[in-house]
Amino acid sequence: MCNMTFEEASGENSTERMDSVATALEKVLSSALPQGCITVGVYEAAKSLNVDPDNVVLCLLAADEEQVEDVALQIHFTLIQAFCCENDINILRVNNTRRLAEILGGGKPGGEPMDLHCVLVTNPQATPWKDPALSKVSRFCRDSRILDQWVPFINLPDR
């Protein structure tokens, strides 16, 4: 039996790899937003997953430290994670909802904050994505699953 750490298996320094994946994730979100390939909010994501799960390429679950103990939010996360795992959708946990809001353009019209606890990235209507940044994030998710880390965690650094 082989007991390798994630860093040993990936052959990269853990911090460098995480920073690299975080940067790739930012690129994915920035390029998906103008194409209309972003669904924001737990309820909206659940509706989208129910209608067309095959079109979802990435699911982000975001919570800041003070929200980690929110039982209702954790129940939502558990259900979404189970659905995504069953439908072979890549999942990432992120911890910086303020940075996520910056990447996604702030809030809703009228100044109302967005529900950033769940963000889905979907394929554009015309053709599937062929984006190197998305490939990097997907590879990170796949490598994590191989090591039995089904929902890897990414720290989105402040800019």
Give an overview of the whole structure.
45% of the residues lie in helices and 14% in strands. It has 159 residues and is α/β, with parallel strands linked by helices. The chain has a single domain, classed as Ribosomal protein L30/S12 (60s Ribosomal Protein L30, Chain: A, 2-Layer Sandwich), CATH 3.30.1330. The chain has a five-stranded mixed sheet. Its main location: nucleus. Pfam families: Ribosomal_L7Ae (PF01248). Keywords: Cell cycle, DNA damage, Growth arrest, Nucleus, Phosphoprotein.
Tag the structure with descriptive keywords.
alpha/beta, 6 helices, disordered N terminus, 5-stranded mixed β-sheet, globular, 60s Ribosomal Protein L30, Chain: A, 45% helix
Structure in a nutshell:
By secondary structure, the chain is an alpha/beta fold. 45% of the residues lie in helices and 14% in strands. The chain has six helices and five strands; from the N terminus they run ααβαβαβαβαβ.
CATH topology: 60s Ribosomal Protein L30, Chain: A
The CATH architecture? 2-Layer Sandwich
Strand order of the largest sheet: 1-4-2-3-5
Average pLDDT works out at: 84
As a percent range, the share of strand residues is: 5-15%
Q: What's the CATH C level?
A: Alpha Beta
How far is the N terminus from the C terminus? Answer: 41 Å
Going by CATH, the homologous superfamily would be Ribosomal protein L30/S12
Helix-and-strand structural type: alpha/beta
Element-level helix/strand string: HHEHEHEHEHE
Number of domains: 1
Radius of gyration: 15 Å
How many DSSP helices? 6
Please report the total strand number as a whole number.
5
Low-confidence stretches: 1-11
What kind of sheet is the major sheet?
5 strands, mixed
Amount of helix:
40-55%
Overall body shape: globular
Subcellular location: Nucleus
Domain Ribosomal protein eL8/eL30/eS12/Gadd45: 24-105
Organism: Esox lucius
GO biological process, one term: regulation of cell cycle
